[in-house]
Amino acid sequence: METKEISLILRIEGGIADEGLLDVYDAADTISGIARSINIVTHAFSNDQKLRKQGQSAHGAHAFIHSSKKGCFEEQIDIRFESKVVKK
Question: Which of 4, 13, 76, 82 is 20 to 30 A removed from 61 (C-alpha atoms)?
Answer without folding.
Answer: 13
